[in-house]
Design a protein that fits this description.
Largest sheet: 5 strands, mixed
Helix content: 25-40%
Shape: globular
Strand order of the largest sheet: 1-7-6-4-5
Order of helices and strands: EEHHEHEHEHEHEEEEHEHHHEE
Number of helices: 10
Number of domains: 2
Radius of gyration: 19 Å
CATH superfamily of the largest domain: Thiolase/Chalcone synthase
Bound molecules: acetyl coenzyme *A
Number of strands: 13
CATH topology of the largest domain: Peroxisomal Thiolase, Chain A, domain 1
CATH class of the largest domain: Alpha Beta
Strand content: 15-25%
CATH architecture of the largest domain: 3-Layer(aba) Sandwich
Length: 336
């Protein structure tokens, strides 16, 4: 936006933010359930039956969230046919930024050579991509940006306690990205964001910069803590409610949806939401079996996989939803 006057992108009539291209990136290293069973008291059978997860990707030593996000961004920009000079804004959903500052968005911007455009991170844990998409959508709709790169990227492996079996089996690393472009005809129809900070201790990382920081520990001693059972129940209820809210806001019904692209935390949560929507699992994009829970990266990773495999087609109606630490949750309904 830097070289243009605020609002100068405004075009007459209604403006939508359309997904012009998608991309994703997964680190090479694979960690299977059997690998984990050598580290903690667990089994492939327990992990698969409770979560649906078979394996997850883990970033190499020194490989950062920004590195993963940059690779996903390059692919999304190539698919959208845009160059760094076209970008008006970069929004990165992440809860595992490379640094406290500059933001991961600024680090990626510099590598892309997109200097001058706005760049910011959004921290909404596993809902980070849906939140980031919503922010980008608003900038496009109000005419302040025409082309926005939205990334969800995480290296959760850095804040997982690898001795704690109740959490370490769940998470993985990765990144996904989309390029949004202003369009008069199609795109994001609505986004719906929610949070409940009162439940923070059910799913959190109790260590930060101004609380609990341990200078002698890797990452200051940061560790994911979760009461899985409580989170599970709350997540199912919140997701049920937000999908109803989304359809109602658009005067649509479950039958109008072509694809559900959910946050990939647990196959049982995904199945519960699909059941609520009356959607057969063939119309739900599932990657949790191969990626684990990649937090803010999971929705754009699943989207990119479904687009590149030819399952998701132009003109189809897609519902994204996510739930995560905060608690935060949200949805986006869009015509692809
Ligand atoms: N291997 C073997 N046994 C295990 C493991 C493991 N990896 N983990 C827990 N257990 C044991 C427990 O100790 C417990 O044993 P007990 O009965 O002797 O006490 C038993 O298995 C059952 O444990 P539960 O926690 O009740 O298992 P549950 O069926 O709830 O599954 C899970 C746990 C998978 C974590 C589930 O609750 C879940 O997916 N929750 C939601 C997670 C989520 O959606 N997070 C949101 C996003 S994350 C983010 O925002 C960063």
């Amino acid at each position: 936006m830097s070289e243009r006057e605020p609002g100068s992108h405004a075009i007459s009539g209604r403006i939508y933010a359309r997904i012009a291209g998608t991309g994703s990136y997964l680190p090479d290293k694979l960690l299977t359930n059997d690998d984990l069973a050598k580290q903690v008291d667990t089994s492939d059978e327990w992990i698969r039956s409770r979560t649906g997860i078979r394996q997850r990707h883990i970033a190499a030593e020194g490989q950062t969230t920004g590195d993963l996000g940059y690779e996903a961004a390059l692919k999304a920009m190539e698919a959208a046919g845009v160059s760094a000079a076209d970008l008006d804004m970069i929004v990165v959903g992440t809860t595992t930024p490379d640094l406290i500052f500059p933001s991961t968005a600024c680090l990626i911007q510099a590598r892309l050579g997109a200097n001058g455009c706005a760049a910011m991170d959004v921290n909404a844990a596993c809902s980070g991509f849906v939140y980031a998409l919503s922010v980008a959508d608003k900038f496009i709709r109000c005419g302040d940006a025409r082309t926005v790169l939205v990334i969800g990227a995480e290296t959760l492996s850095r804040i997982v306690d690898w001795t704690e079996r109740t959490t370490c089996v769940l998470f993985g690393d990765g990144a996904g990205a989309v390029v949004l472009k202003a369009d008069s005809e199609t795109g994001i129809l609505s986004t719906h964001l929610h949070a409940d900070g009162g439940k923070k201790e059910l799913l959190w990382n109790p260590v930060g910069v101004s609380v609990g920081f341990q200078a002698d520990q890797p990452n200051g001693g940061a560790r994911i803590k979760m009461k899985g059972n409580d989170v599970f129940k709350y997540a199912v209820k919140a997701l049920d409610s937000v999908v109803d809210e989304t359809l109602e806001a658009n005067g649509l019904t479950q039958q109008d949806l072509d694809w559900l692209i959910p946050h990939q935390a647990n196959l049982r949560i995904i199945e519960a939401t699909a059941k609520r929507l009356g959607m057969p699992m063939e119309r739900v994009v599932v990657t949790v079996d191969r990626h684990g829970n990649t937090s803010a990266a999971s929705v754009p990773l699943a989207l990119d996989e479904a687009v590149r495999s030819g399952r998701v087609q132009r003109g189809q109606l897609l519902l994204f939803e996510a739930f995560g630490g905060g608690f935060t949750w949200g949805s986006a309904l869009l015509r692809y």
